[in-house]
Amino acid sequence: MNIQFRENQEAASPLTVKTAIADCDIHPARAARTELYPYLAKRWQHHLEVYGVHAYQGMMEGPPYPKAQPNASRRDAWPPEGGPQGSSLSFMQKQLLDPNNVQLGVLNPLGTGQGIRNHELSAALCSAINDWQIDKWTSKDKRLKASIVVGNEDGLSAAAEIRERAGDKNFVQVLLLSRNVEPLGQRRYWPIYQAAEEAGLPVGVHAFGFGGNPITPSGWPSYYIEEMVGHSQCQQSALASLVLEGVFERFPKLKMVMIEAGFGWAPSLCWRLDKAWQRLRSEVPHVKRPPSEYIREQVWWTTQPMEDPERREDLFDVINWIGWDRLLFATDYPHWDYDEPSRVLPAGVSEANREAFYLGNAKKLYGVC
Fold it and tell me: SS3 for 291-350, per residue?
């Protein structure tokens, strides 16, 4: 957690790290609502002005739960030139990229065209977001790489967007959200996985989303803290669906990245899935191996929010089960629960594992030298 306010916003953090790092979850923001208009046809500009967007659920312009800070962001992340947190490249460079020696930063825009009932508008907004990421971010700082945002509820248009961007070095993954109209293993999403596999791009599944369903399996909770811890439950449902619907069996080269939902729950989920599969495998004959084998081979995990048990040995036990080669460091900048790179790992990690954790795993997964 990080909500401190620094008097001198221009000063580099004293908690800098010398090790070069990859930050695999950075959230760029638009300075103004109309910032996408240059990338949208006049038809869609007019549509937004007259009709707005029709989401699967309300509150899409803001988070489903009110938070103490706008856009759930750090109080010290307001750019000095104005605009919301995460909207200024120069300030992001001064506050995040330079002092933390970020060699690779993966952009995951939120509040895009995903989760909109008008699928044509969704596809247009997502394509505009992708053009905007190039123009405003990746073309201006070569450390930054973008995620291909797709209109995920329309698998065919999403696949077309992936194929159009395939081979463009500005992009390193496809971005989905964890809350959708249906669980992510359903066949409506398979064109996305097929296109991503063909392109050799990992699919990142970020927490949040607007699928029109309650954010917990048992309805709407009362408190924001319930939403925060509930991201892991949503990701567990997504992973179970991906395995049991046969996505990993059908697309054996597909790589998934579970973003911003922790990873400490992964072993127990796999143990439970394996036990159930042993008894009920006749129901899902297309799942040919224990679920844990698919997950351990085809899934990576970003570290923010990282579990923080009292005994560091407990954390190491979990990571050893998952594999040190499966973790990707992330800060979640500029959000309030930002993880400081210099503090996130406890003592006792070997130099090889530390280098893989901070940079090597991400470079290998995303194919970035």
Answer: HHHHHHHHEEEECCCCCCCCCHHHHHHHHHHHCHHHEECCCCCCECCCCCHHHCCCCCCC
